[in-house]
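Notes from hallway chat w/ T.B., transcribed later so I don't forget. T.B. wanted the structure written out for a chain they're using in a teaching module, and asked if we could keep both sequence and structure tokens in one place. Agreed to drop them here.
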Amino acid sequence: MASCMTPDATAADKIRCDACPVMCYIKPGAAGACDRYANHDGQLVRVDPHVVLERTVSHGGRLVPFQAGGDWDGKIVHEQDVFVTAIGAGTTYPDYKPAPFIVSSEIDGVDMVTVVTEGIFSYCGVKVKIDTDRFLGPETATVRVQGEAVGHVTTGEYGSQMLSLGGVHHLTGGSKKEGRVTCDALMDLSNCKPVELTIDGGATVVVQAGYPPIVNGAAEERMRVGCGSATIGMFAKQWHGKVDEVVVVDDHITGVLSEHQAGKVLDIADTGIKMKGRRSTPGRYFQVAEPGTGWGGTQISDPLTILGPFDPKVAKPGTTLLMVSTTGEHAAYYELDEGLRPVEKTMPADLRFSVERIQENCEPALCTVLFMGGAGGSLRAGVTDNPVRLTRSVKDALTRVTSGGAPVYVWPGGGITFMVDVTRLPAGAFGYVPTPALVAPIEFTMRLSDYAALGGHMDHVRPLASLKTDEARLVTAPRPKAGERS
């Protein structure tokens, strides 16, 4: 356990925690409402150890050349390969207090400082990317957990459905239960735990960062190789001479080989096929069916329903037709009978091979969770007594922002709004306080001279070597890779 700030004295045997606005009174041997701070023999302590990362090759660190600079000194961990994270460090509440750890070190001969704190984020959420063609719900539809609204469906991207969850309005703007459920869902998703989401007018999906989504009880295996038109362009040469017509069914852009530019370049003859939906450019059709969880992200289970009658002036009996989805999950082979009606036949081996090639080129379906938050007053004031200087330093690339040691993307514009892939943080990096708000680690690293120039808390700087083993825990193992769901 890592010791923390001196709590306010209270009556009898309780102490008052001042790590967040809740200000819990904590009995001896008990923890506060957040389960992060506890009363240990009358002292307020941070329950989780402070995490320090060892920069190993598995974390993307550099290799130390064998016997570089002389004989090995016997040390397993070199100081420049150790990074102090904010996990378990504690908060700066109230805002004016310096960050819990302001640690100096020398890296490649340059004096550096890393300022770490666990931020209390009322303004935060997660962006979820779900690799699937299946229809999860209409855009802007409400996403729920345990019946409570926690976010909404946003614009779909190539082969993936996107959700925006959390945010201050769900955390604080609704009922107490809505805020609590939203906070729990955000923390579980950020800690790579599975969360079941239901979407108004759509599907039920289990999301866990780094794992395949489970849509309506069925685990997804792959995301699509491309839209229907792109699939035609990619595989047209493999179909040439083996089948007369190919239709790649897609909720967004369905492709037709004989009409597509790829087919024209290969001199594939017209087949007289007629498609339902709205024709865009040659060989590309929109809105051939309603979205759903069937073929190509549509609601159909019979692909022939998107075809009209074949043109008798062009079509011929015996014309062969392959219909396939953008993932290769669905495929069927047909031949036109004397009445120019498609009749399903056993698929030839060479066409089955092409369907398998589509499947091979589909990447595994995974869920991606990005935590997103804004570094507000408590974070910036914990670094410097003039917070706007920190913002400017980040924008000028003088200060590097990380979260639990993981790289972040800082949005352009005002403030320090960042996103981080939660799978790149050590396990259990996110917590909560029952205001409700999430607690997330954030670190600011810069030259020591730049830290002094921006008005940093120089009298609180401590050397890396001063971190004691009973204060910190060295972590070397990255997150487990995708596999069995936890």
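Follow-up for T.B.: The first helix runs from residue 168 to 172. Might be a good example for the class.
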